Amino acid sequence: MATDQNALHDPALQDRLVAAVGGMERFSSNWSWRSHSPKQRAESAILGAVETIGDGITALAAKDATADQVEEWTAKAISLWLAWQAAGARTANPMITGPANFPVARNQKANAAEQKRGEEFYLFAHRPIAWLDRRHRSAEKAALSAESATVDHRALEFPGVKLVQNTTLDRIQLLFDGKPAAETISQLKKEAFRWSPREGAWQRQNTNNGVQAAYRVLRFLGHEKGTLSAVTPNLTQPPRPALPHEGMTSL
Question: Is residue 245 part of a domain?
C-alpha cells in the first residue's frame, strides 16, 4: 500500500469529518457556550483531527496495512473523536454564559467526561501501530482456531465434560456442557485453567503438569479410574491413542 505523504492534510478526510459533525455551521454551535469565537474553534478542532488521524493513516500505510485495516482504524478514530466533541458540547464557560445560576457541579461533571473522551481519542489515535499489531495477533489466533476446528484432536468424554488435547493450540482443554458450578470454577482456577471465550473451553498449556492438572479436576468432579465408559476400549475398533504425557486412559 503506497504511503500518502499528504494524508495529514487530506481534503477527503477533512470533508469526512465535517460531514460526520453535520456541517461546520452545526459544529460551530457546539462551541457557542464555550467560546467568543465558536467558528474558529470548530475549524481548529477539525484541522487538529485531520492532522492527528492523518498521522495515523500515514503510519499504518508505512507498515503496509491493508486498505481495510486503514479504514477500520480510521473509522474507530473518528468515532472516538466524535464522542469527545459531543462531550465537549455539553460543557459551558461562565465567562460566556454569565455567572448567574451557573450549574457548577453539573459543568464539572461534564468537563470530566470531556477530558476522559479526549484521552481515549488521543490514546488510540497516537498508537496506530500498536493497534495494527493487535489486529495481526487476533487474525493469527482466529486462523489457529479455524485450523483447530478441523483437526481430530485426542479427547476423552465424561458425563458433562470433555477433556481435549488440542495440539494445534498447544492447550489442554476442558469443555463443559454448560457453565460449571462455582466450586468447579474455583477448582479450575486453582489448577491454573483459564476461560477462553474464543474456544469455549477452560484451558492451560499442553504439558505434563497441564495433563495432571486436568486429571485432578476430573477427580474433583468424581470421575474416577475404572468408572467411566469413555475409558473402556471398544473391542470392535483399535484402541484410542493415548496422550504422549501420561496416557489419557488413566486418571
Answer: no
